[in-house]
Design a protein that fits this description.
The longest helix is centred in the middle third of the chain and has 25 residues, at about 190-215. Strand 8 (about 350-355), helix 14 (about 360-380) and strand 9 form a beta-alpha-beta unit. This protein is globular. By secondary structure, the chain is of the alpha/beta class. It has helices spanning about 20-25, 35-40, 60-70, 85, 95-110, 130, 140-155, 170-180, 190-215, 235-260, 265-270, 280-285, 330-345, 360-380, 425-435, and strands spanning about 15-20, 75-80, 115-120, 160-165, 220-230, 290-305, 310-315, 350-355, 385-390, 410, 420. The structure holds beta-D-fucopyranose (FCB). Beta-D-fucopyranose binds near residues 167, 171 and 224.
Length: about 450
Amino acid sequence: MFSHKRADFGPDFVFGVAMAAHQIEGGQRDGRGSSIWDTFAATPGNTRNADTGVIACDHYNRWPEDLALIRDAGFDAYRFSFAWSRLLPEGVGTVNRAGLDFYDRLIDGMLERGIKPFATLYHWDLPSALQDRGGWMNRDTTKAFADYAAMVGRHFGDRLESIATFNEPWCITVLSHFMGVHAPGYRDVRATARAMHHVLLAHGLGISAMREEAAGAKLGIVVNMEKAEPYSQTPEDIEAAALGDDIFNRFFLDGAIKGRYPQRVTDILEPYLPTNWQDDLPAISPPIDWIGINYYTRFLYRHDASVPVFPFVQVRGDLEKSNVGWEIYPQALTEFLLRTAGDYPGLPIYVTENGISETDEAKRIAFFDKHFAAIRAAQQQGADVRGHIAWTLIDNFEWAEGYDPKFGLVGMDPVTRDRQPKQSYYDFQAMLTDGRQPTA
Ligand code: FCB
């Protein structure tokens, strides 16, 4: 049982669950174009057990029962993402009618069930046709994204509560172009710097394009924050953590909201950024309506002069961990919420993802309970936190880790794909419906 009540968070606080297109939809026929996650997962060695999202949770067909689960638990919102290549199979140009119809059904299905649609335009599944032309390394992709954003805004905007341009720019750029862990699997500093800049430019152009088209929807961006702490109190480790914090937790919001990049990062990336990158900063930073923060864990930073570009290694500490080894550190959520409220004043904040991979339900429930307390603490100290969106409703395709991690409030039979609510699902239901029977 959670030790919190819905009402503790304020009358309009939104509780929701998040899932992302490639992790759940399947439905790869029906006119959907190829994305970088299709081919990355199809390549040996890139995902655990060679798992793929070909069928995933079959949400493409089973979405009505998934929306029923969301409604019956008393959640207010479903944070979902559009698969760009389902709507525009080539990334630009011809629209796939079946894709429009699918998201029409999904969004109308949410509204019929009293669920607020929180949409994300880009949760990592770039159309392969755009990757063929250099993907995020190519400035033209920013224009393609703005056109896609305008199209989504025009067609769906009046039915959406909010639209985020990007989910987790750090993962799209550093994890995917520098560390090679996610699609497209590059390890190249120039590719990384260009991707970092172009994703932010695409964000800015996308916001500006949607301002006209997406009447009513509140426009924002979702970043992941990960607590960066020094491994020891040496000046070198302290500086390593400060650099890690700037790359992970400041670069993208400072760019999108303040129109500037942290100097520690540009001192290093300058030779690899596009020429005259500074000229783009105004286009990168049009006004937005809200900030989304995804928060899971922390890393310790140890200086290592032998590592080129960013001279540190990240190590795990000795706090309690989830079953995928992520340390549990709720108080950093309070810190991030207060810092975000202070650094970017006037913008409502949503915790757009937060959750744990676990098979031990008591541990999952305790995780959420402590993070709820962390949100309350931030609210009490003045942060304008408007919602908590749990990652995730159903165990799903966890990218390079395949289907091994268990982040869901609901399990899934690997053969029948039947959904099986876990204790944490029922605890959410008890907190959110507060004894009321969910409507049928
Ligand atoms: C976040 C991603 C989400 C999922 C969770 C566990 O970084 O946005 O898709 O992978 O982590």
